[in-house]
Amino acid sequence: MAEAADFQGMSPSPARRWLRRTGALLAGAPLLAGLLQLPAAAPASAASGSSTVSVDINTLTPSVPTDGDTVTVSGTVTNDSKQTVTDAQVDLRVGPELSTRSDVDSVAQRTDFQPGLDGTIVGGKYVKKFAKLTPGVAQSFSIAVPVDELDLGSDGVYQLGVSLTGQTSAQQWQQVLGIQRTYLPWQPEGADTQTKTTVLWPLISTAHMTAETGSNAEQTPVFLNDDLAKEISPGGRLEQMLSLGKALDVTWVIDPDLLASVDAMTGAYRVESGTGTVAGTHQAVAKQWLADLQDAVTDKEVVALPFADPDLASLAHNGTTVTGSLSHLKDATDVAATTVQTVLHVTPDTDFAWPVNGAVDPSIVKVATSAGADKVIARSDSLEETAGLPYTPSAARPIGGGTTAVVADARLSTAFQGDLTSASASTLAVQKFLASSLALNQQVDKERSIVVAPQRTPTASQAQAMAVAVAALQGGEWTQTQTLASAAAAKPDASATTKVPPASAYPAKLRKQELSKPSFEQIAAVQDKLDKFKVILTDQSRVVTPFGRAMNREMSTSWRGRAAEAQSYRDGVRNYLDSLTNQVKLIDKSEVKLSGRSATIPVTVQNNLVQGVDHLVLRLTSTSPTRLKIGDDDYEEQKVTVNGGHSQTVKFTTSAQANGQAKVVAQLFTEDGQAYGDPVRFDVKVTEFTATVMLVIGGGFLLLVLAGFRMYKQRKRAAQREAEEAGSDGPDEAGEPADGPENPEGPEDRLTEESGTRPGADDPEQPSDPTPDTAAESTDPSGTGERVDR
């Protein structure tokens, strides 16, 4: 064995390991022959007892050892049975090399101990012994072994197991009572061909800000809750993502809504609490997080998703038939770059779209690229290989129409899902990720570009495991870091699949989580109401901007699996808009009594907003024009402008055509003819000829009759005097005396004088046309039963 280095094609270290293994096999041949003569029940018994004790590997350092390193494995063993385990010993087992990624997967699927597959014991002093293991009590172990003692062969991935052997009172022979397996990537020297690897590091959260803002000039934002403060505080999920990511060479994938929300927290903000709001108090935390992020992304690649990370699949499957849905995606894309530049002072790449889990179909690709993106981040379990390639091709795939699918590797991208709060689960995830990456690199001696796109919102424990794995990967000898833009621009593999799967292949589980068509219809209804509302505002930005961003959040991917919360958020946006639009309204009116042929009817417009409104038209319509006319027709319109916090009364001229009750409708319209708000309906009771008016008219007629009679008597006397003055001494033709005694005034003459009638000498005064008996209105709203004659 001293001449091991003389074996052709072998370095001294691998040759020595090969001889050690050969010697071990030869030495074990008699033992193996003896085992073959044991009863068949013995191996079965050994296998059946391998779940008696739980073995957890909590740490394995270094994750990727090299020549001269010492591998340290630590963890716990716990007796899960009701019997005491005696003569227990923890051993390290080096299994066979795992040549394919499928082999790596199969290791994690095995549970019971399987002789042969679970390798040979390192033995010697590299063990940990326990006199006994009490039921339910965890015992710690730590074994440190020089890597040379592991007898690793050629570069590759090896199964590393930790087993516990012992015996119980029921089975009094040494057997494997528990085992845990992990992976040991072995690449002590630089690989001939390295894999270019891009790791996406997502900073994405859920929707936190509402559409509501304060009435002050700063428009103080209102948050749903204080959960975002928890996420960015020390130990929080986003704080962990930031602090871990800044030490890595990764591509930052950021939702601009997260930046806008944290930026809003740096100033005054409020948080919903019960039926009101309370002042937010985490300004310092927000400022620190943003400052750290600005430092972390300096000179790094930043990819900005559309604002609020819209759910592209939901939009493609349920939203495209709803008018205006795609315009929200365009708005979200347009505002993304500006938001990132404003907050982080870097120019992001906005050419990438990222559907949920990288699952694509033709409609998703069409929607994803409709807002300007020309690259879609897919995943290999969606865009699966169909050409039977024996290796994983590069990420970039031309899928037609000038669009590139950047296909992330599914195994690497999903390596950190699930519960990783335990050290054992986290360590296993890290080692499996590294093992899968090394196995991928060894598939073919061909340079490839691989993308890792993890889950959008990793937990703090998942983020910690990701960081450990990525740090080890970037410190390894088989990969080199690459930006996402470079991966997308890399030369595609001519044999790789470029056909996008049909809609029928979209995962049913993901489809069940999508936003429904009624969700998009509700968003469209809010947009329609906002469009009508904004045209009357003197400062549209105070309303359009916060509601526009809120509607982006309503389409967010973060609502998947949270249908009730999504509905509550949409209801909140709609209800708040309703409350604002209702601040501009008509004051209700009760019945109006109109006496006379004409009158003015006042209608009051109230504006409780902090800003003025204009471009409004108030229309007053009579539904009974034969009884009551408004202006010269059955309706009249007048423009309305009302300052913030004020009311404006508009007066309409009316004319009565007949007695009775007329129904009148007051309605606000925008200048383009769209009805605004609810109409106000009220009755107008027309009483043109009342009893009082008839009495006045009757009295006036009687005075006219009496005045006429007096005039007749006066003319008759004048005629008599003229006849007398003409010299007639006898009776006239009428047989009346020529100069009879003057008759005293009769009662009709006294009535005329008392009434104040002063007849003219030649043309008696005629009564004028009746004047309007309804004077100009007060500017105050009409009260109950109000007569419009004040």
TrEMBL record:
Name listed for the protein in its UniProt record: DUF6049 family protein
Species in which this protein is naturally found: Streptomyces justiciae
UniProt keyword Protein biosynthesis present: no
Upper lineage: Bacteria, Bacillati, Actinomycetota, Actinomycetes, Kitasatosporales
Keywords in alphabetical order: Membrane, Signal, Transmembrane, Transmembrane helix
Superkingdom field: Bacteria
Pfam family, one: DUF6049
Composition skew (Basic and acidic residues), residue ranges: 747-756
Secretion signal, residue range per the UniProt entry: 1-46
Comp. bias intervals (Acidic residues): 725-736
Residue span of region Disordered: 720-790
InterPro entries found in the cross-reference section: DUF6049 (IPR046112), TonB_box_CS (IPR010916)
Keyword Disulfide bond: no
Sequence intervals crossing the membrane: 689-712
